[in-house]
Amino acid sequence: MKAFIGAKSIQGEPMDENTFISKYKHKETEGKTQLGYHVVYPNPEGGYHSWLPKYVFENAYREYSDGEIRMVGDVRTDTKQLEDERHYLISAIKDAKIEGLLEQYDVWRSKRTQQ
Fold first, then answer.
1. 58 by DSSP, 3-state: which?
2. How far apart are CA 24 and CA 48, in angstroms?
3. How many other β-carbons are positioned within 10 Å of the β-carbon of residue 12?
4. From the first residue on, what is the mean pLDDT of each consecutive set of 10 residues in the chain (115 residues)?
5. CA dist list (Å): 41 to 12, 50, 52, 100
6. Domain residue ranges in the chain
7. Which residues contact residue 107 at a Cβ distance below 8 angstroms, ignoring those fewer than 6 apart?
8. Closest to 45 measured CA to CA, from 114, 111, 106, 102
9. Which of 19, 65, 76, 80 is the most exposed place for a label (fewest CB within 10 A)?
10. DSSP 84
11. Which stretches of the chain are DSSP H helices?
Protein backbone atom coordinates (compact mmCIF):
# COMPACT_ATOMS: atom_id res chain seq x y z
CA MET A 1 0.00 0.00 0.00
CA LYS A 2 1.30 3.47 -0.85
CA ALA A 3 1.68 6.28 1.70
CA PHE A 4 -0.12 9.60 1.20
CA ILE A 5 0.02 13.01 2.84
CA GLY A 6 -2.53 15.80 2.60
CA ALA A 7 -2.89 19.37 3.72
CA LYS A 8 -5.99 21.47 4.11
CA SER A 9 -6.79 24.94 5.30
CA ILE A 10 -9.52 25.00 7.93
CA GLN A 11 -11.05 27.31 10.50
CA GLY A 12 -11.15 26.23 14.14
CA GLU A 13 -12.01 27.46 17.60
CA PRO A 14 -11.77 25.85 21.04
CA MET A 15 -15.09 24.26 22.02
CA ASP A 16 -16.01 21.38 24.29
CA GLU A 17 -17.89 18.44 22.78
CA ASN A 18 -21.21 19.06 24.58
CA THR A 19 -21.34 22.69 23.39
CA PHE A 20 -20.67 21.56 19.80
CA ILE A 21 -23.42 18.93 19.94
CA SER A 22 -25.89 21.41 21.39
CA LYS A 23 -25.02 24.23 18.97
CA TYR A 24 -24.49 22.34 15.69
CA LYS A 25 -26.32 19.04 16.11
CA HIS A 26 -29.25 20.67 17.96
CA LYS A 27 -29.31 17.97 20.62
CA GLU A 28 -29.24 18.34 24.38
CA THR A 29 -26.32 16.78 26.22
CA GLU A 30 -25.56 16.12 29.85
CA GLY A 31 -22.69 14.79 31.86
CA LYS A 32 -19.00 14.76 31.19
CA THR A 33 -17.55 16.47 28.17
CA GLN A 34 -14.10 16.65 26.68
CA LEU A 35 -12.08 19.60 25.45
CA GLY A 36 -11.69 19.98 21.73
CA TYR A 37 -12.22 22.21 18.73
CA HIS A 38 -15.11 23.20 16.49
CA VAL A 39 -13.72 22.89 12.95
CA VAL A 40 -15.08 24.24 9.67
CA TYR A 41 -13.82 22.55 6.51
CA PRO A 42 -14.40 24.73 3.42
CA ASN A 43 -16.56 23.41 0.59
CA PRO A 44 -18.60 25.02 -2.20
CA GLU A 45 -21.81 24.83 -0.14
CA GLY A 46 -20.37 27.01 2.62
CA GLY A 47 -18.48 24.79 5.01
CA TYR A 48 -18.78 21.51 6.86
CA HIS A 49 -18.88 21.77 10.66
CA SER A 50 -17.18 19.11 12.73
CA TRP A 51 -15.65 18.60 16.16
CA LEU A 52 -12.25 17.15 17.00
CA PRO A 53 -10.80 16.17 20.37
CA LYS A 54 -8.11 18.59 21.57
CA TYR A 55 -5.20 16.16 21.14
CA VAL A 56 -6.27 15.22 17.58
CA PHE A 57 -6.66 18.86 16.49
CA GLU A 58 -3.41 20.03 18.06
CA ASN A 59 -1.45 17.17 16.45
CA ALA A 60 -2.93 17.79 13.01
CA TYR A 61 -3.18 21.60 12.71
CA ARG A 62 -1.30 24.77 13.54
CA GLU A 63 -2.08 28.44 13.00
CA TYR A 64 -0.87 30.21 9.88
CA SER A 65 2.33 32.19 10.43
CA ASP A 66 2.36 35.90 9.52
CA GLY A 67 4.46 35.07 6.45
CA GLU A 68 1.99 32.41 5.29
CA ILE A 69 -0.92 34.82 5.67
CA ARG A 70 0.93 37.43 3.58
CA MET A 71 1.69 34.77 0.97
CA VAL A 72 -1.81 33.27 0.58
CA GLY A 73 -4.04 36.03 1.95
CA ASP A 74 -6.26 35.88 4.98
CA VAL A 75 -8.09 32.59 4.48
CA ARG A 76 -10.84 33.53 6.93
CA THR A 77 -11.67 36.72 5.04
CA ASP A 78 -11.44 35.03 1.63
CA THR A 79 -13.81 32.22 2.65
CA LYS A 80 -16.35 34.63 4.16
CA GLN A 81 -16.17 36.94 1.14
CA LEU A 82 -16.73 34.06 -1.29
CA GLU A 83 -19.69 32.80 0.72
CA ASP A 84 -21.24 36.30 0.82
CA GLU A 85 -20.77 36.63 -2.95
CA ARG A 86 -22.39 33.23 -3.50
CA HIS A 87 -25.48 34.10 -1.44
CA TYR A 88 -25.83 37.47 -3.18
CA LEU A 89 -25.57 35.94 -6.66
CA ILE A 90 -28.02 33.12 -5.92
CA SER A 91 -30.56 35.61 -4.52
CA ALA A 92 -30.18 37.88 -7.54
CA ILE A 93 -30.56 34.96 -9.94
CA LYS A 94 -33.65 33.65 -8.19
CA ASP A 95 -35.19 37.13 -8.05
CA ALA A 96 -34.59 37.67 -11.76
CA LYS A 97 -35.72 34.13 -12.64
CA ILE A 98 -32.98 33.86 -15.24
CA GLU A 99 -32.95 30.35 -16.72
CA GLY A 100 -29.58 28.62 -16.88
CA LEU A 101 -27.65 31.31 -15.01
CA LEU A 102 -27.59 29.33 -11.78
CA GLU A 103 -26.05 26.38 -13.60
CA GLN A 104 -23.44 28.70 -15.15
CA TYR A 105 -22.61 29.98 -11.69
CA ASP A 106 -22.16 26.42 -10.39
CA VAL A 107 -19.71 25.68 -13.23
CA TRP A 108 -17.78 28.90 -12.52
CA ARG A 109 -17.68 28.11 -8.79
CA SER A 110 -16.40 24.55 -9.31
CA LYS A 111 -13.62 25.81 -11.61
CA ARG A 112 -12.66 28.49 -9.09
CA THR A 113 -12.40 25.99 -6.22
CA GLN A 114 -10.14 23.74 -8.33
CA GLN A 115 -7.56 26.52 -8.78
1. helix
2. 11
3. 19
4. 80 93 88 93 80 93 80 62 71 68 72 65
5. 9, 8, 12, 29
6. 8-62, 74-115
7. none
8. 106
9. 65
10. H
11. 17-24, 54-60, 66-72, 75-96, 101-114
